[in-house]
Design a protein that fits this description.
about 600 residues; alpha+beta; Spore Coat Polysaccharide Biosynthesis Protein SpsA, Chain A; Ribosomal Protein S5, domain 2; 2 domains; six-stranded mixed sheet; 18 helices; 20 strands
Amino acid sequence: NEVTGLYSHLEGIPKALLPGVGGKKILDFWWEVVNTRQLFSEVYLITNADKYKYYERWATANDFPVENIINDGTTTGETRLGAVADLELLVRSKKFSDDVLVVAGDMLCEDLNFDISEVIKFFKFKKGELAIYYEMEEGEKSETRGIVEVCPCTNRITKFYEKPSPNITQSRLASVVFYCFRAETLPTLGEYLEGHPDVDDRVLGKYLEWLINKDKAPVFGMKLPTGFQLIGNVGLSEYKKWLSHYSAKQHGSAVKSITCCSYARIGIMGNPSDGFYGKTIAMTISNFWADVTIHESKKLVLVPHPLNDPTEFGSLQDLHGISRKEGYLGGLRLLQATCKKFYQYCSQQGIALAKRNFTLKYDTNIPRQVGLAGSSAIVSATLKCLMKFYDLTDDDLQKPLRASFILNVETEELFITAGLQDRVVQVYEGLVYMDFSKELMETRGYGNYLNMDISCAPQFWLAYLGDPSDSGKIHSNVRQRWLNGDSDVVAAMKAFAELTDLAKTAMETRNFPELAELMNKNFELRRSIYTDACLGNGNLRMVELGRKYGSAVKLPGSGGAVIGLCLDPDNLVDLKKTFQESGFVVCDVVPCDPSTSLKK
């Protein structure tokens, strides 16, 4: 139906040999992907007699072995064999005894810059067949694709629907002709053909549907964070539409950088019971945050922060002073550990990442070593950047699991003692109630997390040490005592959880005098099991000053800072002056409302 003449030179050319994104032929992209001797002993191309000469000419120009082009002898749609019969022809004629990768070389892929070795590695790891899938874009119709339902725990495809009618499944995960088959499965091709003589049933999607739903074969799914189009018989309008769409997306993603933000947090109630099957309420605050920026680059580069990762000093005395105050561990290790864990997670979960390098840098104004979750904020922001850069969605790494991921970066990679609270509130943002009950944690690996109305939070104040070198070692030996079943510690953690439930009710009913009493009880309970020696003189001094002015006071984190709730405005003015005159930094807490926050 093309009347302009602009595309008349493409008439009769096979779809695989049409120009793709950037002008390169669609098949050229796929040939680059699979032309790897370390992974594939041979590469074959199956076509019909009508288009054979086109592919022969392409092969001679692209160093593809012409003898590996298989001609199925058909010339029309009416006489076609069907993709399953074509594949069976190849397997039988070449006497295959190895595993095979099958790809439709005429699919237009949004981004073919993925690592095929990761696909093969995941296929070998899972010990079953493998089907690649992607998440459909808005506007794509499920009845035009093979739709899969995938178990998020095992990656096994539980159901396969070939071009299902609307409302058959809620899944938006589309399978394409991109499969790995084990050698022992290949004989089922002949079995399938015997039972399906109709050529319309001899498409690979229906074969997969039969293999999964009826034969109950172990077929696993691997997600590519990209899109696929021009599948099957399509017209010129579809070709123009998707070529333009993917070209625009590729151009946009190549030139822009991505910046993500995570905020500091204050623990309002229940901390530190999050690491002991307790309950907590915490809130992210807009006073302080960490920014991480990522952009594509030729090499993968992690940029040291000029203040937090110093490599040059004014003098030996300067080095001594900075090291004494800031320590030796900056933020660069957090970026590196997050990247390492991210790659590991995607490999294990069957998510093939694009072969794109990047430059990653961070900045933060969260005060160090005062228990405001500065480290986890950098990890959280880094993870956001990586997910956006590689086009991962919330379905690929859901919020509850994202918090656990961030914790694992710190505990497993960097051996930082920490609990889930900070990571949960930085993922969910705002005011969050968290239940880490043992039953929940052991059955599903995460707790029950609930965003509360941000207006439930009263006006808190925050103070922290200007020199946090005496912030104490808050966790002390409490964990070991808890593991040993110490009755005092076990009872205290249970009491923290009870205080949290009472605080939730007090906040929801705006009973702030009750909340103030509960905050004081939280601190005294913590003091009873951690002792003054572990809390440190600086923390105790801030609590003492706050209470002098009738304010409720408690530690919002591991030490070095306090939060307070002063219901008398006049006393609050005097309280701030006294804190400032005593060498502490003090400010009003600005809640972070995720619905209105400008920094993301």
